[in-house]
TrEMBL record:
InterPro entries: ApaG_domain, ApaG_sf. This is Co2+/Mg2+ efflux protein ApaG. Pfam families: DUF525. Residues 1-125 form the ApaG domain. GO terms for biological process: error-free translesion synthesis.
Length: 125
């Protein structure tokens, strides 16, 4: 897919107010910004996540779009959303991919999401 440049930035955050150490429930939010640096509009059609707990246990999540949307992102535009992950361990890793549609050719392509760490800050755990 020549000429298509999509950048994905992730900002994870621990949600102490929603977590419970005694129940092994660790809630993290993550804000993702998808930057379309391409000359064409793209539509975010699907997501894939691989969530690895600190114990090594993996969970895979697939679905249409993100947060109930399949956003159209114009040239030079960005789409930002926040979602959550609930782990059973105080540390984990998420990675994945988005399936996007190049609206000029109607061809789908994937953009990898670099692994990012979810961790309870040391002073809180």
């Amino acid at each position: 897919m020549s000429g298509l440049t999509i950048e994905v930035n992730v900002a994870p955050s621990y949600r102490a107010d929603e977590s419970n150490d005694a129940e092994s429930r660790y809630v993290f939010s993550y804000t993702i910004t998808v930057h379309n640096q391409s000359p064409h509009s793209v539509q975010l059609m699907a997501r894939y996540w691989k969530i690895t707990q600190g114990s090594g246990e993996c969970q895979e999540v697939r679905g249409k779009g993100v947060v109930g949307q399949q956003p159209l992102i114009g040239p030079g535009q960005s789409f930002r959303y926040t979602s959550r992950a609930i782990l059973q361990t105080p540390v984990g890793v998420m990675e994945g991919a988005y399936t996007l549609l190049d609206t000029s050719t109607q061809r789908a392509f994937e953009v990898a999401i670099t692994p990012f760490r979810l961790a309870v800050p040391l002073q809180l755990h």
